[in-house]
Amino acid sequence: MPENPPAAPVDAKWTEIEHLPEWDEEFYHVYTAKKHGKWLMLKTLRPELKGISEYEKMIEKEFEVRYNLAHPHIIMINDFEEVPGLGMCIITDDVYGDSLAKLIREKKVTDDHIYKLHHQLLDALDYIQTNHLAHHPLDSSRVIFTENIGNLKLIDVGFDQKNFLTHADTAEDIYNYGVLLNEALDAVETQHPRLRRIAARCVNPDPSKRYPTLNALRLALADKRERMLFIAIILFLLAMIALLLWLNSAFRPVPQIS
Hints:
Elements: E1 14-19, E2 28-35, E3 38-45, H1 53-66, E4 77-83, E5 87-93, E6 97-99, H2 100-105, H3 111-117, H4 120-130, E7 133-135, E8 143-146, E9 152-154, E10 157-161, H5 167-186, H6 193-202, H7 214-221, H8 224-247
Antiparallel strand pairs: 1-2, 2-3, 3-5, 4-5, 6-8, 7-10, 8-9
């Protein structure tokens, strides 16, 4: 059962604050609460770390870096403020639901979850890599399906930001995605042979035989219609580039002056 936080002065703004031990992180306790009647989630330093400059700066930096992120499948931060009884908290929208890890343990993974793993999760990973966002290694405990809608949300993204991502960074995402996908497929009744083959390539013991980029993985995951559209777009762009190069070359037609 969730634990109640220490007694605090009454604050009409904050109500129904409850500790969520299963969501706790290495340095943080996680709570759910209502602010002016709206459900939110709070993340604050563990009691033993409060007042220690190193950790106070850490939570401030996490807020500063993550505040500007904006993606429908990554948990967004919307404030950093003092909450009675808890201290300074990072405030996020309410994403209470079940982690993929829990769904796997309880054998409750559905085809809808699988679909979202190879669409919504790939979109989130693409955003991460495009914006050079550092993040904890991808695993099933960091993928959440919200309680009411079942929307996929990725947590713990953007604690730090890099000037560029190395090949090792992108390769790790692809490998971990394959591990996660295999775990989910083990827990669903429907057989997905194509997805099994894709997951197997992601985790191939020979790194040279894995997907080299996230775009290559996305193309493999796309269904036949999506692949044809993707290929058509690429061919169109290549044709436009070739046309521009030709028009700017010495071989372009020269207008005749009468």
